[in-house]
Design a protein that fits this description.
Elements (H helix, E strand, L loop, with lengths): L6 E5 L7 E5 L3 H6 L15 E4 L11 H9 L4 E8 L5 E3 L20 H5 L19 H11 L2 E6 L12 H21 L6 E5 L2 H10 L5 E4 L7 H7 L4 E5 L5 H8 L4 E4 L4 H7 L1
Parallel strand pairs: 1-3, 1-10, 3-4, 4-6, 6-7, 7-8, 8-9, 9-10
Antiparallel strand pairs: 1-2, 2-10, 4-5
Helix pairs in contact: 2-4, 4-5, 5-6
Length: 275
């Protein structure tokens, strides 16, 4: 029998240009994770997900980037959420604001008001000057307005995604996950239009407890030998991994067990190879 592999590219958009790819065991499993696991989970995933919106053509993790993704044909976008000093969930990727705003310093040392005052667009292009960091509530509202599905990454605390977090960092990850889940409960998209993901096992445990019906993705850099045990324990819908360290053979083997999402693929030839 032929085996349908479900594999998604996370891309920046115009492949639609930097993306995620999905591959998996069968259409029914694609919609519910491992066979027999989490039967209530359902999310319809396209072949390409816009990475941080459409970061090739607009400043990443901004509302402008979300709207740009919609304009070029995306139906699904991925963004990152972090906590401000005063515990407001805000869309941003790095642990510092240096790269993608006109500010400097650690993200978590700034209040929401201080973060909202930063220019998050001028660094990318003058036409985006004045674009600011959005709150999670604003991001969820914009996805609804644009009829976009969402992969919400709950950020890990260490700078290095592969690093083992300290106890203090695990506590921060759990706190972020709790606040993000509560926000999703109040303002989130319709069922089937949200996927939660994280490198943080602690965060995924919170998501499993607070939002058991929402599909979860276990994020990794390299595919670990024990990926399946961890993904099963966390009740995960999919495994998300870095494309540059994965072989086609690995992808095919894993995607026969669980849907797989691959980041960040910016080259059409590499996308074709993985797909």
């Amino acid at each position: 029998h032929g085996v349908m592999r479900q594999f998604i590219l996370l891309a920046a958009i115009p492949l639609i240009a930097q993306s995620k790819i999905i591959r998996g065991p069968s259409q029914s499993a694609f919609q519910s994770g491992f066979s027999g696991l989490n039967p209530s989970m359902s999310v319809v995933l396209p072949r390409v997900i816009g990475h941080r919106g459409a970061k090739a053509i607009a400043p990443e993790n901004t509302l402008a980037s979300i709207r740009a993704a919609k304009r070029v044909g995306a139906t699904f976008v991925e963004v990152d959420v972090m906590l401000s000093k005063d515990k407001v969930p805000i869309i941003h990727h790095d642990n510092t604001v240096n790269r993608c705003t006109n500010g400097s310093g650690n993200f978590g040392d700034l209040t929401a008001q201080e973060l909202f005052c930063l220019d998050a667009g001028a660094w990318f292009s003058p036409e985006f000057a004045g674009e600011r960091l959005p709150s999670l509530v604003e991001l969820l509202a914009t996805c609804k307005e644009q009829d976009l599905s969402l992969n919400l990454e709950i950020k890990h605390a260490p700078d290095d995604a592969a690093a083992v977090p300290s106890d203090d960092e695990k506590a921060l990850e759990r706190e972020l996950a709790k606040i993000a889940c509560q926000t999703v409960k109040e303002f989130g998209p319709a069922p089937g239009k949200l996927l939660l993901s994280s490198f943080s096992v602690s965060a995924l445990e919170v998501c499993q407890d607070m939002l058991p019906e929402i599909p979860r993705s276990y994020l990794v850099t390299d595919i670990p030998d024990d990926w399946e045990a961890t993904a099963r324990r966390l009740g995960c819908f999919s495994l998300n991994f870095r494309h540059s360290s994965a072989t086609r053979e690995q992808v095919e083997a894993v995607s026969r067990r669980i849907p797989t999402l691959c980041y960040t693929v910016n080259d059409a030839a590499r996308a074709a190879e993985l797909l």
